Amino acid sequence: MIDQRSLERVATLTAPAAAFTQTTRINANGLLADRLGRPLHDLRISVTDRCNFRCSYCMPKEVFDKDYAYLPHGSLLSFEEITRVARLFAVHGVRKIRLTGGEPLLRKNLEVLIEQLAALRTVDGQPLDLTLTTNGSLLARKARALKAAGLNRVTVSLDGLDDAVFRRMNDVDFPVADVLAGIEAARAAGLGQDGKGGGLKVNMVVKRGTNEQEILPMVRHFKGTGIVLRFIEYMDVGATNGWRMDEVLPSAEVVQLIHAEHPLIQLDPTVAGETAERWGFADAAGRHDKTAGEIGVISSVTQAFCHDCNRARLSTEGKLYLCLFATQGHDLRSLIRTGSSDADIESAIGHIWQGRRDRYSELRSTMGPDTTTLAPGQRRVEMSYIGG
Ligand code: SAM
Ligand code: SF4
Ligand code: SF4
Description:
TIM Barrel; twelve-stranded mixed sheet; binds S-adenosylmethionine; binds iron/sulfur cluster
């Protein structure tokens, strides 16, 4: 099959590096802001475009088959390159880094990268909030080394507790028990207590007609464990998952379903730009029962949260994407590999962020569907390429 992505790569690599090297303007409050006034706070870094799962909503088997052209090793950013870029992002106010993929734990010696990132500091001299999203398949083996390297916490994706449903959804026949063992290992390694009130999270993508019957068993399983279970609306990311609106189960329905069995009360957001709406389990008096904990819902489809989206994404090969639904990235790797100075790269990042207008989820209903028939450079990037 044609590797659509490599065609896109050619299209974006042609942008001259010099075009980015303009002086950064900083707003009156001292913070970098985009065209809609949004600061740069989070950086998500994809460390591999490969995965050992084939979740149909992300890497359907028919597309990501044995002939699929993954990135060659030489085009991946090295750990040193990633750390350098991350340091320059921190200068612009980034406080949180999430490692993702593909499956990030497939990247060899990831602990070495974590050690390097853990040594970075925010503008006010604090360590960065360092986290990782994983399918959990390799977590049992790696949790202790990740923690020792300086990882603060981890988010594990798990779409159900029923083994048959889970095996079907990951589409590689991977057993649910191994992911649960990974979650336990993460907790035992201390990845559940980051000292800042954050901890272990479990993300479940809900697809109507596929796994909504798993919502209540998941709630019963994780309630009172200290693990925050979050439900994600099935999104139209990429161009290959055959997304249909009628397969989205709106978060409002998820909350209603849970509330009928486990009364909930809405909680305030912990930080600005938080993607999840928080709901606490209520006690008999209708107050938040902290021992029972909380759940979250991420309503990217039915309730856009673009207005305070402060996330940038760095692809495996060093392209900066300003939105999960972007079609084009900005090539930072060519700046790095043509010998640009820190000041030039920092300035380029600032300039790119200041030009940002992206708010795809707010505009979704006005846009046509994205399909594999669109021309290179017009298709949305795949989630496995820029990470979640
Ligand atoms: N492989 C890792 C994992 O699954 O956690 C990290 C990468 S994965 C792309 C990051 C997150 O994106 C996962 O929680 C996954 O469930 C979510 N995701 C992928 N495709 C999605 C889709 N179409 N809609 C909603 N969430 C999606
Ligand atoms: Fe792999 Fe994560 Fe995508 Fe599933 S969601 S295919 S585990 S990258
Ligand atoms: Fe941010 Fe784009 Fe998602 Fe809106 S659609 S919240 S801008 S990533």
